[in-house]
Structure formats: C-alpha cells, structure tokens
C-alpha cells in the first residue's frame, strides 16, 4: 500500500518542492519584517487631527470633503460637520463643499480645528 501512495514521486521533485516552499516563506517573511519599521515611523510622524467644518454663520457642514494636500488621503465630515484624519504636523488640509469656496488650513498642533467656509457668490454659467 505504501508503494502505491508514493508511485510517481521521486526525491528530486520532493527536494525541489521543499526548496520552493522555503524560498516563498523567506521572501514573505523578509517583506513583512521590512514593513514593520516603516509602519512604526509613520505612527510617530502622523497624529489624529480632529475638527469641525462650518459655514459663515457657524452652522456645521455635513458632507464636506477634508483632504491632505498632495496626497490621496481624505475624509468626509459627519452630520455635525466633524471630521478626524491622520496627518503629519505641518500638513495642509484642503476643505471643500459644494456652493462654498475651497479653503486650505495648515495643521499647527494636535488641537481641534474649526474651519469656516465662505459661500461662493459667483453666478453659475
């Protein structure tokens, strides 16, 4: 019975398969370890920034887009006009909302931001 299970299997194939598995494991493990220091560095440089987006009367603007300038990182304000986003100190937030002028705000610390947008008074074409 043992003989039938190993029929067509030779030691060369077994060694080749074993070497392939070891190589794949080594590559995967080295890539995972290489990513750890980068993630740790990023965690120290970025901070959770919280804020509120309002109109000129101080009313919250739900659904406003808050994006970190020069990146694809963005979020949208909630029903109370509040947002939170991971950003590095010195980064610039670009805040936009339909019918309002886009505004840029520099992040200076870890405090809460209030960003007030002005209505766009230009007539539509």
3D structure, described in words:
The chain is an alpha+beta fold and 125 residues long. It has helices at 2-5, 11-45; strands spanning 47-54, 65-68, 74-76, 82-87, 92-96, 103-106, 113-116. The protein folds into two domains: 2-43; 47-116, Carboxypeptidase-like, regulatory domain (Immunoglobulin-like, Sandwich). The strands form two sheets. It has a four-stranded antiparallel β-sheet with strand order 3-2-5-6, with no helix packed on it. It has a three-stranded mixed β-sheet with strand order 4-1-7. Strand 2 (65-68) and strand 3 (74-76) form a beta hairpin.
Helicity level: 25-40%
Structural class: alpha+beta
The CATH architecture assignment of the largest domain turns out to be Sandwich
Number of helices: 2
For this structure, the CATH topology of the largest domain is Immunoglobulin-like
What spatial order of strands do you see in the largest sheet? 3-2-5-6
CATH superfamily of the largest domain: Carboxypeptidase-like, regulatory domain
Main sheet overview? 4 strands, antiparallel
Q: Which strand-content bin applies to the residues?
A: 25-35%
Number of domains: 2
Rg (C-alpha, Å): 27 Å
- CATH top level label of the largest domain: Mainly Beta
Q: How far is the first residue's CA from the last residue's CA?
A: 85 Å
**Average pLDDT, all residues:** 76
String of helices and strands: HHEEEEEEE
């Amino acid at each position: 019975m043992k003989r039938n299970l190993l029929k067509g299997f030779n030691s060369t194939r077994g060694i080749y398969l074993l070497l392939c598995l070891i190589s794949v494991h080594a590559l995967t493990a080295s890539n995972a370890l290489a990513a750890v220091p980068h993630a740790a560095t990023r965690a120290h440089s970025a901070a959770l920034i919280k804020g509120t987006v309002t109109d000129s009367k101080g009313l919250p603007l739900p659904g406003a887009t808050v994006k970190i300038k020069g990146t694809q990182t963005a979020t949208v304000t909630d029903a109370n006009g509040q947002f939170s986003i991971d950003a590095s100190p010195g980064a610039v937030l670009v805040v936009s909302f339909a019918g309002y002028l886009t505004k840029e705000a520099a992040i200076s610390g870890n405090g809460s931001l209030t960003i007030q947008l002005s209505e766009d008074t230009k007539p539509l074409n």
